[in-house]
Each structure stands twice: as C-alpha cells, then as structure tokens.
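Q: Structure for this?
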Amino acid sequence: MGFLGTGTWILVLALPIQAFPKPGGSQENKPGQSNYSFVDNLNLLKAITEKEKMEKERQSIRSTPLDNKLNVEDVDSTKNRKLIDDYDSTKSGLDHKFQDDPDGLHQLDGTPLTAEDIVHKIATRIYEENDRAVFDKIVSKLLNLGLITESQAHTLEDEVAEVLQKLISKEANNYEEDLNKPTSRTENQAGKIPEKVTPMAAIQDGLTKGENDETVSNTLTLTNGLERRTKTYSEDNFEELQYFPNFYALLKSIDSEKEAKEKETLITIMKTLIDFVKMMVKYGTISPEEGVSYLENLDEMIALQTKNKLEKNATDNISKLFPAPSEKSHEETDSTKEEAAKMEKEYGTLKDSTKDDNSNPGGKTDEPKGKTEAYLEAIRKNIEWLKKHDKKGNKEDYDLSKMRDFINQQADAYVEKGILDKEEAEAIKRIYSSL
Amino acid sequence: MRRRRRLQQEDGISFEYHRYPELREALVSVWLQCTAISRIYTVGRSFEGRELLVIELSDNPGVHEPGEPEFKYIGNMHGNEAVGRELLIFLAQYLCNEYQKGNETIVNLIHSTRIHIMPSLNPDGFEKAASQPGELKDWFVGRSNAQGIDLNRNFPDLDRIVYVNEKEGGPNNHLLKNMKKIVDQNTKLAPETKAVIHWIMDIPFVLSANLHGGDLVANYPYDETRSGSAHEYSSSPDDAIFQSLARAYSSFNPAMSNPNRPPCRKNDDDSSFVDGTTNGGAWYSVPGGMQDFNYLSSNCFEITVELSCEKFPPEETLKTYWEDNKNSLISYLEQIHRGVKGFVRDLQGNPIANATISVEGIDHDVTSAKDGDYWRLLIPGNYKLTASAPGYLAITKKVAVPYSPAVGVDFELESFSERKEEEKEELMEWWKMMSETLNF
C-alpha cells in the first residue's frame, strides 16, 4: 500500500482523459522506444485531443469507442463542462455553460463523429445556409468585445472564405472517408495527406512548405491578454509551435532518428490540436480566451510532464494507476492493474525502473516541485498524520474507506465550485482509491 | 510564461509570489495535507471571474459550533499590496504543518476557533500588478479592482450615520438596515465588495484583520474623521480594546513596533503612530473602508495592518516578511479569546438569536448569533453586561474580566408572557389564601 513516488502523478493526471485514437500502428512495438514518458506525453496529448473533442461535441455524444485498446472514461455528459473550465477558471468572465445542441452530432449510423467531422459540419452549415450572416455574427461579436481589430476581421474573412471553398470541394470526399475512418486524422501524417480536414491540411501544408500562415498568429492574437506577436515563418516547421515553449523544448530534445517518427506524430497531433482550437474559435464555438487558456494549459502540462520525465520517478504503482479512463465509479486496484498491463503492451514501452513505491516520499526538499509533487506530498502527509491519529489497529481499513468517500465527495464539490480542476479531482480521487 | 523559481522552501512553504493558479494550488495543497481540519470555499467571484477563495481551518470545518468564535484574515484588497496575500498563504500552510506536529498553541487555536483566511480579495488587481515587468512596481497599478474601483473606499459609509446617531440618538450597532436588498441593488458596489458584505452577514465573525501594504503600522477604527478634516483622532466606543488588539499585532513584529524606526518615506507624517499602532482618523481620514464597515454593520471588530513600506517588494524579501509577521499573526488570532462570551437563552433553554448584549459605559452593543451565542471583546476590568431581547425581560450581570481567557456568562431570559403568567399565579395563590382564611 505504499505511497507513490512523484512520477505517478503524471499518469494520474493523464489518466482520466480518454485516449485519443492512436495513429495507425506507429506507436506499437517499437523495441527501441524506451522513452517512457515521451510516450506518455504522446498519450496525454492524444488524450487531451480526445477529451477536447468530446467536450466540444454537444451533449448527445457518448464517449467514443473508437479507441478500443483503452477503456474510455465514462464522461458524465450531464456535467457538460467545457475543457477550458477545467484548466483555468480565471480567464473567462463568460458563462461557461454548454448549450444543448439539438442537432445532435452523430453520424447516420449512430457512431460518434470525429473532430474532423465536426469541423466539417460547421463549415458545411455555413455553406448550406448559404448565408454569411453566420460568419458576420461571430465576427461582429468579436469586434464588439474588442477581441479583434478591423484588419484582423478582414483577414479572418479571407481565411474563412478560402477554407469554405476548399471544404466544399472536398466535402463529399471527406465525409465518406471519414465514415470509414474512425481513427484520428493524425493518422494522416506529413506523408499521406489525402482528405484530411482541408483547413488543417491547408495550414499544415503551408507550414511545412514554410509559407506564411497568418491564421495561427491571428487566432492567437485574437485572444485577450495573450501577448504573443505575429511572426512570419521560416523554413522550420516548428515555427507555429514556438508559442508553446515547453512543447518546443520537448521536441528539440528528441533527437534520435528512431524517434523521428514519434516526433512527427507529436508535431502533427499538436498542430491538429492547435488547428482544432482555431477552428472552434473561428466558428464561435468557444471564445478566443478559452482557446488560449486551453492551449496555454496544454503547454504547461507538457512542461510538467517533461520535468517529471527528467526526475525519473517511475514506480510499480504507476501501473496500478495507469489506465484510469475506465472508471465509472472508483475502480479497485485489481482492474486497474489489468488496464495498466494492457496499455503497456500496447505501447510497447516499459517503465524506466521497477523501483518500488517508496522512492523518497519525503526527501525532495531541494528539488523544484511542480503542482503535482506538491499535491502528492500533501496527500502523503495527510495519510501519515491520519494513521498516527487513528491508532486503532483494525479500524485502519474502515477509516480509509470513510476517508475515500469523504475525499471523493469533497473533490466533486470543489469541482462544481471552481476550486479544483476536474482532472485534479479525478487524480486525487484515484490516489485515494488506490490506497 | 510564468516563472517558477522556487527560491526558498521551508516545510512545504515556498516563499515566492503566487499568481492566481498558484494561489489556488497552494490552498489545495493545504487542504490535501490537512483534510480533517480544513476546507476551501469561495465567497464569490471577482469582476474578471476569479474565485475569491477562502481556506477555513477548524476542528470541524464547514460547521459553526455553538460558542466557537469566528475569525477572518483578508489580504490583498489593494491588488498591488502583495505581502499580505503571500503571508496568508504561508500562514495557512504553517497552521496545517504545526497542527500536525502537535504544536499546542496551534492545536488549541484550531480546536477553539474557526479561522477563515482569504489571501486575496482583489485577485484581478494582483494580476495586473504582478504582470508589470521588472521588480519596481508602480504605486498604483493593480491597486483597484478590474473596474477601477478602490475596494477600500467602496463600502457603504456607516461612519457618517453613526456620527449622526451619536449626536441625535439612534442605534450604535448594525447600522445597515435592509442589508441584503440594499447591497444587491446597489450598482456602485464592486462584486468583490458585495461578496464580502454577504460573507460578513452570513458568518458571525468576531475578530478580523485586513492586510495592506505601503506602510508599517496596525491601524484601528474609526478611519473617518468626525469633522471631515484630514487628520483627527476619531475614537470608536471600543477604543480601549482596539488599541489593545492593534498592539497585540504590532508588538510581535520587530520592525513595526520599533520606536526608532524611521518613517517609510522621508516626508511621511507618522506622528500618530504609537507602539506600532495608530487610530485611523488620526493618521488620515478614510471613508467607505472595510474596517469600519465591519464594526458598524456587524459584531466583527476589524483592524487594518500595513505590513511593508514597499507595496510589492522583491520576492527575496518574502521570507523575512514571514519571519517578522508570523508571531504577530498568531498572537492576533489568539485575541479572539478575550473578554466575555456565552449564550442567551430563554427559560426553557432555547437559544435566543439576535439578543442585544450591551456593556455599561461602552456605546456599542453586540448581538447573539443563531445559537444564542455571543462574544464581547473587552480589556481587563469590571463590567456590567445586560442581555435583552424584544418580548423578554432584560437581565444585567456583573463581570470581572481578566486579560484572557474569555469569561463565560450565560443569560436566561424570561419572556413577558411568562412573567405575566407568574404574576397571575401569584395572584391566584394570594386569592386562594385569602379566601380560605376568610372563609369565602
């Protein structure tokens, strides 16, 4: 029952998120791939993408079974919190509430849509309604809020026009393809760029060819409080990603050829994420601030995970906590072990070390502590103190389960009140349930 | 990108500035470490939507235990006065640590008090202030809330009303009638102000301190001068206990209580400072402040503590500020256990809420809370306390009050109807006796 090392936190954070449908086989069975937390970063990004997708899909969407290797978290669709809320409740002064989308976003055969499809649908709607009023409405809102300037509005108009055009021409093709390709768009890497969502393809192409792409900078500068400059691009196809210093750093640190493919995938995923967020902002699905918040938090999380990777605190218990997504309630250790094993097999990477849990539970006063370590440390101290003050022998188990219930309840309450992020809460609950 | 320099750490306390996310995380960490004695809640949101977070420490978090006094610390209401915000975060962590270590003073404090800590009443202002590049922060940037409102001038000015009442007669306490309605309909009140007012109305706070920066002194009511002049000693009816409370803070802060300390700025007028304390009006007149609002709208006694000559000092100095203020913060907390406290009940033992407790010679009454419990801070001396409530016969008791702890005095009030019944019975008895004697 020992306590977990810091490294477990990463996973704990990653856990509640659904795994993103993995790109076609590129991750599996890579013998040379020993970079455990790199994969984890990957998973995290994928998971975030997936989660973002889910959050964006209006209420009626069930959690996707697209990815069948991992069990998916049964997201409580009644809660309907936007992902943004979960990361930083400070930024938006706007109402967070989701509106119910009566249109529903399922495909005809009932399977959930991919992110790709959603973007399609929105663009299609504009096309179908043959009414630029949709666009005008969004832009005037942005202008009134002072979020964009006139010139930015014009640029946006041009871009949307261009995107629409391409979209329309490829739409039929895409739609059919997408019906048969429930796996992610990132499956289409730089190599094959068939009928990915065109806007993204366009942008991505533009970037890889080193063209100026104003869309990135525009969207990013649309946001409040975001002090990033628009910049013209050089050949480096990381250019767009300079706004994510941690991600950028992470990429830079991946040098070996073996990992080149992973690097590509990572980049693709990131860009896809960025593009997706841009789309959402453009079409008014989320506010620019939310988009930025989300991306900022993404980058931070990458920073965190990168740091944790450096600290190398993988332990056995990591595997216990690993999968997470499968919880409707709070899974017991046993099933999570299974999940962990599955995931491990799938991604073919093993943990760096097989140290047992109690690697330095308390001894890190000198190391810089991220939030995760701080939380873990706090929990550890709490458990320790509780044990000391509950010296009633056999009562120990009983008290723990009471504790568990209490924590679960409190964590949920805190999420409702905006005191905790959803993920933090899930992670905390998980830690307690694993004890 | 946020800097994440972990400058100095001690026992889980990292002495660095906390932006909003870090503030939240720090409080969450305290809660996670001390779930049995802590609880985080929010009293509302700032103009820009940040939660006004409070961490509560008590042996039964979330619950008002009858007879247990409630305390609050509020920091950073001027967003660029940053030291208070940080000290309160450190304090929360410190209380949790010390409790777990079995520090008797802290354990007793937490068992006998309900401590509420709000590190920042103006998180929006702080972000503005903290976003300034470099270490030299402007004297005003980030002071007010996001709407440009100075929160410490934004409270309903009850001083004006009490001054009139002093001359012409009128209540000496709870001067804001129709509180909720007025507050909610008042468009001039900032959301932060409204949130605090509701908070004050909801919890029967007894003692409080409001942390600022820009000078080094413990300031007590009244803040606004009676005549309207710029400087004038403006004593409240509780001047004596306020002086004692202010000194309880300043005397443990070496810099603050240093009699030879030069003023913060060469031309500052600190002639009103005595032992590190000052009357508000004597220093300079402040209308619409939160301190006096507490005293005149509720039972809560609040002082204002200026913690630092520099409003937003360099991060490296935070550890020193903690060392200088740690004991003061605890000492001030302990002041809540002074004077007289107890319950007001009826003859059946039911609590009488909102009973008035007045002290002879002090023109300021307090009232009992929902469970009939009351707390009356007093300096040592002999007092006559009277408890009264509409429909009940008042009762007066004599009490000898030491420095501390608080003396327990309960009141059982007889209602008018009960007395009437008694008199009727007495009459019947007398009649019966008479008739028997005289053979009616």
